[in-house]
Amino acid sequence: MTSTPDLSAFIKAYDVRGLVGTQLTNEVVDALGAGFVDELGLAGQEVVVGHDMRDSSPGFVAAFARGATARGASVVHLGLCSTDESYFASGRYAAAGAMFTASHNPATYNGIKFCRAGAQGVSFATGLRGIRDRAQAYLEAGAVPAVESPGTESHRDVLPDYAAYLRELVDLSGVRPLRIVVDAGNGMGGMTVPAVLGTAAGLPALPLEIIPLYFELDGTFPNHEANPLEPENLRDLQAAVLEHGADLGLAFDGDADRCFVIDELGQPVTPSAVAAIVALREIRREQARLEATGEEGASIHVIHNLITSRSVAETITAAGATPVRTQVGHSLIKDRMAETGAIFGGEHSAHYYFRDFWGADNGMLAAMHLIAQYGQYEGPLSQLAAEFTPYTASGEINSVVDDVPAAYTRIVDAFHGRAEIDELDGLFFTGHGDAGWYWFSVRPSNTEPLLRLNAEAETPELMAAIRDEVLALIRA
Question: Is the pLDDT of residue 383 over 50?
Answer without folding.
Answer: yes
